[in-house]
Records
---
Amino acid sequence: MSLVQRIQDDLAAHGLAPLHRFGQNFMIDDRALAALVELAEAGPGVRCAEVGPGTGVLTERLLAAGATVLAVEIDAGLHRLLTAKLVPLGLHLVHGDALDGKQSLHPALAAFAAEPWRLASNLPYDVALPVILNAMAMPNPPARIAVTVQREAAQRLVSRPGDPAWGATACIAQAAGTPVLVRRLGPGSFFPPPRVDSAILGWSPKRPLPPGFPGFVRAVFAYRRKVLPGALRDAGCFAGATTAEVRAAVDSACRTAGLDPGRRLEDLAPDEMLALHAALTAAQAWADPAAPHHSH
């Protein structure tokens, strides 16, 4: 029996159909599924989180490899299907949204990440980048990310300064680790077929991100075409300072970070952005808006 027929039969047995509002395009490409399991390095003793398991075609392969799997599924019908099909085989299943607001993952995923873990998923397009970026920014990021995403999203994550796709998303991902576009997947790799190409994306960590760094990158990239003094001032650094004071403070921070203050914000490489953020934080010129404020 083909994989697409198995998926259709599983859905029919539970009175279900793919839901566009949840971005449900189920993977029917055996080679791609095997590539995800291999990329995640799933095996005995490995802990894998999966977002949007669908009917469980990747889940059962992760379990068969010997991995411990926590899956988060938002669809109540698919949650029932997986409860009957894979929970008896050891799947840890949570019904809910993988995103807990814009800046964090579901509490079950946060708890799972307290010990070494990996993220292996055929991600729904509309939550793919927030899930990936929030996972990368956790105090304990995944030791490996192995996911399918829209090809355009994968190309954005692996872009470099100077590329049209370069932006805050790529800078954050590459400051934290190394993303790799493993291979393209056509619409025929999924049921129902999406209107766009997909890709297998891998990522491995380099360093934990300093607190507030993702928010800083998003704020300054809103002024990406400006040279550093203007970009940093407009992003909210040096609040209340005069133009001359801003320029002097930027010159000082840039010297500390080893940067030319005449450069445009969008031309900075991830390591340079990390150095700039560290210099500004040390000079108390940038405060993370998401950080708790303590009154004295």
Note: The chain is about 40% helix and 15% strand.
---
Amino acid sequence: MKRIVVVALVILISVSVWYLFIKKYDYQVSFNVKGSPGSVYHQVISWESWGKDPKAKNITTLDTTLFKQVSQAVIVNDTIINLDWTLESLNDSITKIRVGAISEEYSIQNRVRILMGETIFTRGLKKELKVFGKLANNFADTFKIEIEGESDIPSLAYLFVSSSSSRFGKAGMMMRTNSDLYPKILENNLKVDGAPFVRIKEWDVLDDKIKFDFGFPIKYTDSLPLNSLIKFDRSSPQKALKAVFYGNYRNSDQAWFALMAYAKRRNISIVKKPLEIFYNNPMQDGNASQWKAEIFIPISSEN
């Protein structure tokens, strides 16, 4: 009998030591949101305010593993809560999020209080993550992505202007580039032979900067309006993964992340140089939900 009591005490002490001092987090929350891990990742690292004051700017990103993990520090009432986010793709449109939280100053107190039920710490954590989840889902509802799988990028003969920007600034830069390119097409009576497009030439996924060509397919003539800004090129067909995007073109890059997640789950090696073909003119169609774009990401020759 005495031996049983001793063993029970050893187990109790061991579990208590683990729970109070070794267990990695004070509390963990798991939930699902709409969107691919790449999309959710950028929403996490862009999240700046915790609590009622949207101007607080009290969230600091400490470390990241691209599209997989984010570590952050949150200042709440002069205390620091560390958050570790883990992102996992469940399917083409859902990401599972796990968030582990630990208080730098009050970890042991939190763990003791949690044993007795919900606390201010756990309620606040769940409330803020619920806000984040709602924002992520609302954003995903502003557009629609349909992945069609393997396809071909069509061959193109086109006039183009090269630009660079952040990924977020792509739409604005496209508009400025179009103001340089399209008037020249009209002035020279060139025949546009397809929808305008953006071809990404370089994408620094760490800094989220891109270099791209914005162009119009045209019928070739001997009198193209070429200069230091406007150039002509041809491209050959290429195997690619394809998605169809419906929504405001400023968010069309969300399809890049969806295709990347699709490729990863199927072990398809890709080249991160998307091509976007736009079928609506935003200046003439005010219903952004109906704007259509075809998005391609080239399949690597290594497959």
Note: The mean pLDDT is 90.
---
Amino acid sequence: MNLTSSLSPRKTIRQDSVQLSHRRPVRIHPFANHGDYPLHDHEFYEICLILRGHAEHLSDDGVSPLRRGSVVIMSPGRVHGLRKPTGLNGVNIYYLAPWLLGDPMLLQQRLLALLFLGKTLFPAGTLRTPILFEISSHTLIRLERMMEEITAEYAHPFASLFSVRLLFLRFLHELSREYEIRHGGSGIPFHEEVWAAILLIEQCVQQNRKFNVSDLARQIGCSAGHLHRLFCGATGAGPMEYFQTRRMQHAACLVLDPEFNLTQVAYQVGCADSAHFSRCFRQHMGMTPRDYKRNFQIGECG
């Protein structure tokens, strides 16, 4: 894979080993000290949380020490590894970004969205991973409990995806709050007018409304040209390109939902017919809707 890194991975963590799905949109993989972890990348976001012990983290940004309470956030395609582990125990957490973005209120939490979905939202933008920071012992204990609750919810005979979403959002909120504390409340800088535009675009995506850049600029209070320049500078794409990307990411979430067939999904995202929808989806998601659905059915059983 290796879309954004100058390092060369020895392997890619793929869907066949992670097995994300509509029923299992979050996976928690514990790991223990078994020697160095060679350079690798992922098809998905990875949150690496160190529970005990220590090691060194390798990435394009160099070598960084890891210890109990260290957090590493890696976006898809970025390469990293661990070396010199001593008494190391931790967890790798993987999640389906389109599923997470299915929450219509998520982008109201700007720091959370930038930390855990930034490269999905703005693939051509300047946001970089790895993001490394430390959390307190009290927060780490709370996060361990939340992971136990997510695991227990999956095992429940009447497992609820609503509960899984709430638990995982609480988990991400705790991490983003710790990140903000560690950075003096500064969070991740982002242009206010552009984020206001992003929230308005999200309403169009979630409500299947027509989108027009001139109307958006009028709502923000600037010209369409000025908004386009601001938007490109902050995200690496124009407002219309961003809207089309978000529309297909929203479609990806619906494609995985067994309550919708592909014709219904096409209608829900404003495509004239299934053929047009399939072309748009493939352009943005790298495969057809049918193949995307099949790819994530691999994780339905476990």
Note: Strands lie at 11-13, 26-32, 37-42, 45-59, 62-67, 70-74, 80-95, 131-134.
